[in-house]
Design a protein that fits this description.
Blueprint: H1 2-9, H2 19-28, E1 58-60, E2 63-65, E3 111-115, E4 121-125, H3 133-142, E5 147-149, H4 155-165, H5 182-195, H6 198-212, H7 222-231, H8 238-248, H9 255-265, H10 274-286, H11 290-296, H12 302-314, H13 319-331, H14 335-348, H15 354-363, H16 369-382, H17 388-398, H18 403-416, H19 421-434, H20 437-472, H21 479-483
Parallel strand pairs: 3-5
Antiparallel strand pairs: 1-2, 3-4
Length: 484
């Protein structure tokens, strides 16, 4: 156009004041190459300073913060509360969607020259790209006059990237997510990774999502949704963030991609925004991935823990999953989580699993009745029948001085050790005769249960013998046969 021709006529460079207008228009209106590209050199300089960067970023003493400090406010505590007297392990907290960058110092007052794959040169103020470790390294070695090559970065992608990163970018620049194809997105992320500016790019893309939501929502690539959740969730508006949370877990994905989704969503369960918390929890309850369910086992909501338990019992068993649940069962500070983990072990551990049996046997001595009952039920499921290792682990608890522990252990022994019936009866009788009232009642229940089992077994055996006799009939040569 006329403006572009007059600018190029001035020694083949674009003035800094007319920065993005020319570069962005080329991308949005069909990405045509600049006229006179064979001999001219294009300079797309980012005018203005970094003072009022988009998204509320600000400079303080050479250190850029990419989130607004929350002051004394605290994130919502979604994990189960610790037992009385127990202190939970410290959990490293990261501000939602961002972290403080390393102190990179003050940028020099000068112009950088970036060379695209086609050989065209962009002149950019140094402060615009000073967050890039690559740029800082090149400047330290060669100064500002050195042209910095960007291999495999087409001219249109470089122009697009610089336009997105410009602090003066406005919603009416004509740039939108609809203009970014999947191929363009891949090129943008590759360039951002080369420059070590992925977080800066994602923050700006999040602003585009906010500007165009909800119209653009259906067109956001799944990979971009995950990256936005993980690195720019503080920039996304609540409505857009909730939609992405509900969508991203429903897309087909690989195991590695699913793990990244779990890492991205987990901090959002503790969001101060109630709608975001609800959407994150809903996403995890829908998400049929083991890592998500392990997170839900720690959630304070009973329905979330029950959802995780059902899924883990139906999921394919693996040593990795069993190990993670064992850690929760053995070491967690909340009895609610230990209870949920004990129940899960009863469904995911193989019969006779040594570590699972030992952990559940130890939980028979837990202070919480709910945990003891969950461990007792799980041991009956994976303890097998007359397994000497399991019996030895449970007998150790059956000799405890605390009657609740002895009672739980005796109930397990009665179910898994039919060959040790006399031993169990002796231990239960001793507890019934010398214990407190509650201990006597517990011992009586164990003895009654054993009698009921014995009576049922004897009755079944008699019925089986009678049916066998009826089916055989009189044998040749007996008295009844001679009479006939």
């Amino acid at each position: 156009d006329d403006g572009g021709s007059s600018l190029i006529a001035q020694r083949g460079r674009t003035s800094q004041d007319d920065l993005g207008v020319l570069g962005l228009r080329r991308v949005v209106e069909g990405r045509q190459r600049v006229a006179d590209a064979s001999g001219g050199r294009m300079a797309a300089a980012a005018g203005g300073t970094m003072g009022a960067a988009a998204g509320g970023r600000r400079m303080r003493g050479g250190r850029r913060l990419k989130w607004e400090d929350e002051g004394a406010s605290k994130p919502y505590e979604w994990r189960c509360a610790p037992d009385h007297g127990k202190v939970p392990a410290a959990i490293a907290a990261t501000p939602r969607g961002g972290r403080a960058e390393d102190d990179v110092g003050e940028p020099p007052d000068g112009i950088l020259k970036l060379q695209s794959a086609e050989g065209e040169v962009f002149e950019v103020r140094a402060e615009l790209l000073w967050a890039s470790s690559l740029i800082r390294s090149v400047v330290a070695d060669a100064g500002l006059d050195e042209e910095i090559p960007l291999p495999k970065a087409p001219t249109e992608i470089v122009a697009f990237f610089l336009g997105l990163c410009a602090p003066s970018r406005r919603a009416d620049d004509g740039l939108g997510l609809r203009d970014i194809s999947e191929e363009d997105f891949g090129g943008l992320m590759w360039l951002a990774k080369l420059l070590d500016m992925q977080r800066v790019l994602l923050q700006q893309l999040a602003h585009l999502v906010n500007d165009e939501f909800p119209d653009v929502y259906v067109g956001i690539p799944a990979e971009l949704q995950m990256l936005l959740l993980r690195h720019a969730s503080d920039t996304l508006q609540s409505a857009a963030l909730c939609h992405i949370l509900r969508s991203v877990v429903r897309a087909p994905m690989s195991k590695m991609y699913a793990s990244g989704i779990v890492l991205a969503i987990t901090p959002l369960i503790g969001s101060q925004d109630e709608k975001v918390r609800a959407a994150a929890l809903e996403a995890f309850m829908y998400f049929r991935v083991v890592e998500a369910k392990l997170v839900l086992l720690e959630h304070r909501d009973f329905g979330a823990r029950a959802n995780a338990n059902r899924f883990l019992r139906e999921a394919t068993r693996s040593d990795e999953t069993v190990g993670a649940v064992l850690q929760l069962a053995a070491n967690h500070h909340s009895f609610l989580v230990r209870e949920a983990a004990a129940k899960a072990l009863g469904g995911i551990a193989s019969v006779g699993h040594e570590l699972a049996v030992q952990t559940l046997a130890d939980l028979l001595a837990d202070e919480a009745r709910e945990v003891r009952e969950a461990a007792s039920g799980a041991l009956r499921g994976i303890g097998g029948t007359d397994d000497p290792v399991v019996i030895a682990a449970v007998i150790r608890q059956a000799l405890s001085e605390d009657w609740p522990v002895r009672s739980a252990a005796l109930a397990v022994l009665a179910a898994i050790a039919p060959s040790k019936r006399e031993l169990v009866e002796d231990l239960a009788t001793a507890m019934q005769n010398g214990g407190a009232t509650m201990a006597k009642m517990a011992a009586a229940r164990v003895l009654q249960s054993m009698r009921s089992v014995k009576e049922l077994r004897d009755s079944t055996q008699r019925d089986s013998e009678e049916q066998h006799d009826d089916s055989v009939g009189p044998r040749w040569g007996d008295e009844s046969g001679e009479e006939d």
